[in-house]
Input
Amino acid sequence: MTPPITIYHNPACGTSRNVLGLIRNAGLEPLVIEYLKTPPTRSDIIALVQKMGVPLRSLLREKGTPYTELGLDNPALSDDALLDALNAHPILLNRPIVVTKKGAKLCRPSEEVLDLLLTPQQGAFSKEDGEAVIDAAGNRV
Output
């Protein structure tokens, strides 16, 4: 059985680690897909885009990727060309993407995940940089 929540995660990314922390702070243990080790397939990416209701291009990450070198800023590129690039270079997939029964979204900033969770936060939570996000009663700060 698939867990009720999935995160496409990069453990080297602070935002991704904060999102995972918020999920766990709600008492949930998600299916963690380290997409650099286990890249999503073409059909996985298409399904994510459809579930998110966003254009494929919105999932591309520019910073720290070969985005510019590959000419992905060309608006004339087809979704097939973008999918080819994502398959060849999984680092191009922006993260973290979280999927729950409530929907799917790119959780940047990390607080975006709170809209997808079915259970409340169970206590205080601060981001890695010390910014308080959730108070001791489990409420957004």
Summary: The longest strand covers residues 5-9. Residues 5-134 form a domain with the Glutaredoxin fold (CATH 3.40.30.10). Strands lie at 5-9, 31-34, 97-100, 103-106, 125-126, 132-134. The chain has a mean pLDDT of 96.
